[in-house]
Amino acid sequence: MKMVTYEIHEKTAIVTINNPPLNVMSKQVSTELFEVFTELEANEDAVAVILTGAGNKAFMAGADIKEFPDWIGQSGFKNIVMETHQVLNYLDHFPKPTIAVLNGLTFGGGCELAMTCDMRIAEEHAQLGLPEIKLGLFPGGGGTQRLPRLIGEAKAKEMMFTGEPISAEEADRYGLVNHVVPSGQGMAYAQGLASKITGQSLQALSRIKKAVNNGAHLPIESAVELEAELFEEVFQTEDIKEGVQAFMEKRKPAFTHR
Asked: Rounded to whole angstroms, how far apart are CA atoms 147 and 157?
């Protein structure tokens, strides 16, 4: 049975993780996420992607702890961990805008997965956290790296040192989510946000994402040079011609993403 499926509506792909009861990140889920996003990268009908979990209990409540006992006392399994990082890094740099709808528990690997998305919409009943410390371990899916970059080192360490979850409202104050919406309305809100994005040029959207993601880790001088290179690239596209012409003709542009 497939655990990760998608459908496309009006240029937005909706990807759903369905691994009951709490949509945990098993090996199968990780593999299928990579397969689905690879398909969507090549699918010209999808300009943006919304990622969520089935039901209303959990976006994803962590990794599949049943897989952990095989690792205890073992060494040399870094390559296995890096396979998961390969998937998460791919999602982080996916060349289309991504929105996570957090419709319940977003713990451990689920929180780490959500942080690979460009934006996060949390329903008000959602809880977010990295509780790995309570098992005697620590986040191993990029949490120690992405969380501090999003909310700052001190708050990130507090969350990881204590393992205590935070509410959707706290996550909003920390800057970990973009918006908090009433329970059951996360998908509709995300689709509304996506509709504002999918009318834009994917040529420009993908370069914004690349400039932000790659530039964040560069000295400012190198980062603005990267921006200049991407800015030059976008002027070679069909969409820039259409965008400028539409502006001159006082009409809405019809971008073809080429």
From this structure: 9
